[in-house]
Design brief:
four-stranded antiparallel β-sheet, two-stranded antiparallel ribbon, alpha+beta, globular
Length: 143
């Protein structure tokens, strides 16, 4: 019985030690993200798209992906601004909604091969980020 109590005490003690560390890790990540966003993410003068660069988007998608996955929808809006588009997914999918941020000039539907880029956040049913990525759309000339 004593061994069991000692085991439970050690287990409980160790698990409680990890909790503040995780909280500090999240706060550090969020602080770093907030700092780099100031220099690499801003709404264009005409308020149509978010000005950034490919290197930063790649870092968001790789270096900061774990940090982004700690955020919920309100934090994403707080950090990145109002999404250009929002989408609700059909029920039964792991992803329930998405925020799409236009990060290039808008696609021109009347021009051949007009590309536009979005940085997209996907959310689960608890409104937490489950994935984020840079995607591209192409506008085609309609005949």
């Amino acid at each position: 019985m004593r061994i069991f109590l000692v085991f439970c005490t050690v287990l409980f003690g160790c698990s409680s030690l990890n909790q503040p560390k995780a909280g500090l890790q999240k706060q550090s990540c969020v602080d770093n993200l907030r700092s780099i966003l100031k220099e690499n993410w801003q709404l264009s003068d005409d308020s149509i798209y978010y000005q950034t660069n490919y290197k930063f988007l790649t870092e968001l998608d790789t270096v900061y992906d774990q940090c982004l996955n700690m955020l919920d929808q309100s934090q994403v809006i707080n950090f990145f601004g109002t999404p250009t588009e929002t989408h609700k997914m059909k029920e039964g999918f792991n992803i329930q909604s998405s925020f799409d941020y236009l990060v290039s000039l808008p696609c021109n539907d009347r021009a051949d091969n007009s590309w536009c880029n979005f940085f997209v956040f996907y959310f689960d049913s608890e409104l937490k980020v489950v994935r984020s990525e840079k995607i591209s759309h192409i506008g085609f000339k309609s005949h």
